[in-house]
């Protein structure tokens, strides 16, 4: 099956305003969104969830940890690369993104607990062990943040699975931070 990487002009009419907004925000249309535009409902759902997740109680660093942990657990090279770049733009410490990319511990124990919980939620398809939840709570997180992790994992699952199915090519803008599980 061939999944097009649409342009604003080639995308279905209902997806064009969303792609135009992405063009304004990023300076280009990321390939993931261009691919998603083939199914405008998917694109709209993804962008809506992304906006909602950005309004959660989690900080920018914490949100990127959730998104990178889920992407790594799902083996999504595209999303690992893109979120490394986005994390940098959001001033997330390089040591944090390096730990996620290299599968090493984050020095900050609270952020490490978040990373482990997000990975457990992803890996277990929403059935983390009681110990995972207890460690998350012991680090200072509560029920709201646990459910916001579910939101972030759901958001990334949409993009991870889209990328896997469609074979989304990495954008030139993200080549400098390209990631692969083998690296």
TrEMBL record:
One Pfam family matching this protein: CMD
InterPro entries reported for this sequence: AhpD-like, AhpD_core, CMD-like
Carboxymuconolactone decarboxylase-like domain mapped to chain residues: 47-92
Alphabetized SUPFAM superfamilies for the sequence: AhpD-like (SSF69118)
Protein name: Carboxymuconolactone decarboxylase family protein
Species the sequence originates in: Albidovulum sediminis
Taxonomic path: Bacteria, Pseudomonadati, Pseudomonadota, Alphaproteobacteria, Rhodobacterales
